[in-house]
Amino acid sequence: MKFDFTGTKLNIRTWLASGNSYNLKIDNIDKGSFSGNNTATYGVSYVDSSMYDGRHSVEITTTSSTLYVDTIDISSTGQILPFTGITALPSVPLNLAAQALDGGIELSWGTVTGATGYSLKRSTTAGGPYSTVASNVYVSPYSDTSVTNGTTYYYVVTALNAFGESVISNEASATPMGSKRVILTTTMTNGDTFEYNLSKTELTTFLNWYDTKAAVAGPVKYTFTNQHLKGSFLARKNSLIFDKIIKFKYDEYSVSGIGTPTEVAEVTAGTALSITLTDGKVEEFILSAADYNAFVAWHDAKSAGTGPARYTFENPLKKGPFIARHEVVIFDKISSYDSEDFN
Hints:
It is a single chain. By secondary structure, this protein is mainly β. It has three domains: about 1-80, Sandwich (Jelly Rolls); about 95-175, Immunoglobulins (Immunoglobulin-like); about 180-340, no CATH class. The chain is about 10% helix and about 50% strand. The protein has helices at about 200-215, 290-305, and strands at about 1-5, 10-15, 20-25, 30-35, 40-50, 55-60, 65-75, 80, 95-100, 105-110, 115-125, 130-135, 140-145, 155-160, 165, 170-175, 180-190, 195-200, 220-225, 235-240, 245-255, 270-275, 280-285, 310-315, 325-330, 335-340. The strands form seven sheets. A five-stranded antiparallel beta sheet has the order 4-3-6-1-8, with no helix packed on it. Strands 11, 12, 14, 15 and 16 form a five-stranded antiparallel beta sheet that branches. A five-stranded antiparallel beta sheet has the order 18-17-21-25-24. A hairpin with a 7-residue loop joins β11 (about 115-125) and β12 (about 130-135). The radius of gyration is 35 Å and the shape is rod-shaped.
């Protein structure tokens, strides 16, 4: 007698003639021989109420013609199904990997022989608990697009077959990002520099704080939650004090390869501007006549008490491998400036 069933419980009720026995296999595992002990036995001869929740394969064999299976009792939500010959849960998927995209994460893993599908689970906490984001996925790779840029996600995958689900795979994590991000570098009055890997939105938030504080409003410090440099900690937070910032710059780069930097033609005529800061350091810029005049107009207006506290140079000659470089000087951190025209 052969059959499959689903659920977590199997009770077999039999009548077995004296001196006879039957053998039982479940999921191709020998569960032993059951006999009447030289007297007729009528009752529950096999009980297991703690099986894994899935599909199971049962084989009953006997040399006796006097074995009667009176009742097969399974879980209330289970089913009796045709025998399939599948005898075990699938193996665990190996080598799960996660690749960050713009607005998504691509997941790949090794194929499991005999698997009929895969289930992907994720968490925003390393080690879980995990919730299923995609079930009955049939191929690798798979892209999860129900994510938020800037949030780190942790994934595991399981293999499925007719008998159930494998144990979870290794954990893989990734942080989706917008196609363009920035490296913000701040220089403090004591000479220390700090770098932050930010989305464009996070940069805008920082600039808004700076401009608001420069207008004598808002908090004295700005705090970054630095997920990229947190190491073994759950989170790392760095705070900058407004009046200790002497200058900053932000360099744009592409996450997905969009917007590859282009070569910039050398300036053959213009103005070499040298700005001496209050810490004694000198910043140099090669500007067109129009760009130099714009800087002077800003400085004159701010000296008269109007205009923003900072001036941003779009500096293509010093952008290196980045898409763009923006260098910011702060009015009250400028001691002096000199210029030389060339052609």
